[in-house]
Amino acid sequence: MTALAPHLAVFLREHLPRDQQASPHTCDAYAYGFQLLVSFAAQRLRTRPASLEIEQIDVPLILAFLEHIERDRGNTARSRNARLAAVRSFFRFLEYRVPACLDQALRVRAIP
Prior knowledge:
This protein is mainly α. The protein has one domain (4-109). The chain has five helices and no strands. The chain has helices spanning 4-19, 24-45, 59-71, 77-97, 102-109. Helix 3 (59-71) packs antiparallel against helix 4. The N and C termini lie far apart (26 Å). The mean pLDDT is 96.
């Protein structure tokens, strides 16, 4: 299993601002989206956020998260799609960084 935290930290702190030249606003929005996702996943899986592993962030969990932010948090479809874009971008990053997660990354990126 592969720890989520180190890869997520590199994605948010280095990859987005340096490699993708994302604006500070975009970096903040992605970070907040992942804060919501990590909190949701930790609660659902009954684990600490620091203990989450990439393999646990699978398609059913992501779909449940997207439904949660629309239904329970009252987010619009536009906000939901922005969160999904952040998740897809992270898994695209993982394709190159963690080849063992390639199949999972492809399934996540196929979420409509």
